[in-house]
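Why do we bother with holo predictions? Because pocket geometry can differ from the apo form. Keep that in mind while you read this record for EPZ.
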Amino acid sequence: MEQYVIKGGNPLVGDVEIGGAKNAALPILAASIMTNESVYIDNLPDVRDINVLLTAMSNIGVTVKREDRHKVMLNAGGINSLIVEEETLKKIRASYYLVGALLGKYKYAEVVLPGGCDIGSRAIDQHIKGFRSLGATVTIEHGMIKASAEHLTGAHIYMDVVSVGATINVMMAATMAEGVTIIENSAKEPHVVDLANFLNSMGANIKGAGTDVIRIKGVSKLHGTNYTIIPDQIEAGTYMFAAAVTKGDITVKNIIPKHLESITAKLLEIGCEVEETDDCIRVVASRQLQHTHVKTLPYPGFPTDMQPQITVALALAKGTSIVTESIFENRFKYVDELTRMGANIKVEGNTAIIDGVGRYTGASISAPDLRAGAALVIAALAADGFTTVDDIKYIERGYEDFHVKLHNLGAQIELVQTEKDIQKFKMKVG
Ligand code: EPZ
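The structure, written out:
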């Protein structure tokens, strides 16, 4: 079984290139099946969730050609099935984006119900409500979500909760509906905007993405395009907090600083220095971290996908901090692992009360999900002694070359398979 073995204590220093945003790439790949012409997508992250989706698309007849590690050509002219049963697809959340895309273009989709990180109940009622408002019949049977329609017709849809996935899915289905669709209370995340820009580059007519009202005028046909995915806000934020936690000095490159404002604001609040240029942010942590309070919120609020990373920093900060998780009900599962490393955190419902401790100590821990896994690795990089991290398959879902990038920043980390590899690493680093 693959694990990371880490010896903590080195401040991370240097530059790190940030890849394309996983959560933008997933719906963009799905939406590329809405034209029969070729679509070229650049800045695609080479991570597990993306590769699972590409395999599922290829299995229904989409031509998928890797031009290089981060560029892919897709052509959906030869699609031969509107039923996506791919077992592996169950493991990723974004499987449901194929429903919006297939329903939008072919007025029919049958797709295995999504899985994804175990961070809460993750309802899909708003997706279903949106599809039904457009005139589709939607059922869930035998683990599959099935949506079909004679015609899709534009509608005025009010989302009861702000949902990234539902906004994206309904936007895709409405792109080729007859007439105008208005989505109110839509999500404003950068990846929602990126998908709208991508669809517009294929000939769609979508306005207002990035605000809470999106207006979509249906078009009958989409065409091929060449598109570059935005940088990954959460990958960047993770390295920015790695600087804070390890008392380091890291510059994240190839990013959009605007997308990172809530993260930058919290780093400043806890005592880091942050310098911004056009497409880089440098984070220097030369002082003792200070406590703060934070509540996760939809964009532009502090992202739930950064909640474990800030908690790992606050658990080393001076004083008592409070972290409130308002998006997912089960996103503090990693706290038990962090406690094993010496953190002093009490979870009550959706709130973590954190009393800062002076240091972490290495332990054997497991990654419970993607972002928490990355956060625990960062804690291990600041810990005294050795840590092994199991279940790193979760981390590989969303971070490209995580241990390699950390190693290049000076981390003592290695991907190992066996106990013997761990012993070798320990001998090597002393
Ligand atoms: C996306 O999940 C991301 N996943 C998540 O990132 C991210 O944590 C989340 O948005 C919030 O930013 C992808 O983009 C693939 P939501 P999604 O629909 O779309 C409730 C990561 O680490 N809700 O915005 O599933 C839901 O239960 C992952 O990269 C409904 O009630 O999130 C949650 O409480 C983890 N009904 C809230 O809304 C619905 O129909 C927000 O969920 C849909 C959602």
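Residues 23, 26, 93-94, 117, 120-127, 161, 163-166, 187, 304-305, 327-328, 370-371, 398 surround EPZ (CB under 6 Å).
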